[in-house]
Amino acid sequence: MPADFLRPDHPAPGCELCRESGGALVWQDDAWRVIRIADANFPGFYRVVSRQHLAEFSDLDATARAHAMTLVASVERVLREALSPTKINLAALGNMVPHLHWHVIARFDWDSHFPQPIWGTRQRDVQPPAAERLAQHLTGLDERVAAALSHAA
Q1: In CATH, what number is assigned to the domain containing residue 47?
Q2: Which domain range does residue 103 map to?
Q3: What Cα–Cα distance (Å) separates residue 14 from each residue in 32, 103, 108, 138?
Q4: From first to last of its 153 residues, what are the pLDDT tens digits of the chain?
C-alpha cells in the first residue's frame, strides 16, 4: 500500500484512518480516497474517506461537500449496476473513528445479516461464500468503481 493515502499536512496522531489505508485502495484524488473493505461477509463494502483529518461533514465547504456526495453516489451507482443488490446502505457514523468517511455497502437478502445492519446480529450462514455469489468479481468491481470515480472527479 502506498504511504501517500493521507495528505501529510493534516495527520492526527491516534487516528486509524490517518495511520492506515483502511482497506484496498481503489482510487484517490487530492481530497478523497476510496477503499474496499476486506470483509468476507460483505464483499461489496467500500468507504469514501477524507484525506484530511476532519470529523464532521460541515467542516467542508459547499464545493467539497458536493464533491464528496458525487463520489459516494458514483460508488453507489456502480454497486447497483454491477451487483443488483437488494439495497445499498450508506452510513457516516464516525463514532468509533472520528475521521470523515462514508460507508457504501451492497446488501443482499441472502447476506449473513440482512435485514439487520452489518454491525447487527447475524441472521444466517451463507454458502457458498458471499464473494462467490456476486455477479462481478471483486477485481473487476474495483476497476469499475475506479473508472466511475475518475469520470466523476
Answers
A1: 3.30.428.10
A2: 3-152
A3: 20, 21, 34, 31
A4: 344 666 556 667 788 888 888 899 999 999 999 999 999 999 999 999 999 888 999 999 999 999 999 999 999 999 999 999 999 999 998 888 888 999 999 999 999 999 999 999 999 999 999 999 999 899 999 999 999 999 997
